[in-house]
């Protein structure tokens, strides 16, 4: 049985309980960027979603399969890394000084 399930980021975030963490990270990124037009704000959030989806796809491909637990761990790690980068000011727009 090969991989047959397409990654659906919204479903993954809801199922793993990480949706609120992702939204919190997005809000923090938007605050770090400063005032943005609505279109730019949406683009930033969609870019984050694309990055996370690519990360999960890569991890799944490396491992060959992915359980809900795997997806949760990978998602938490990705969010934690981005939050740390944001705190340190190393993400675009993350300069706090």
Automatic annotation (TrEMBL):
It comes from the Archaea. This is Uncharacterized protein. The lineage of its organism: Archaea, Methanobacteriati, Methanobacteriota, Stenosarchaea group, Methanomicrobia.
């Amino acid at each position: 049985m090969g991989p047959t399930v397409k990654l659906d980021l919204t479903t993954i975030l809801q199922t793993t309980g990480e949706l609120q963490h992702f939204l919190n990270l997005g809000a923090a990124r938007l605050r770090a960027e400063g005032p943005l037009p609505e279109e730019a704000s949406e683009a930033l959030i969609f870019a984050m979603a694309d990055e996370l989806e690519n990360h999960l796809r890569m991890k799944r491909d490396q491992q060959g399969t992915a359980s809900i637990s795997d997806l949760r761990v990978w998602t938490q790690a990705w969010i934690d890394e981005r939050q740390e980068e944001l705190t340190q000011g190393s993400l675009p727009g993350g300069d706090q000084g």
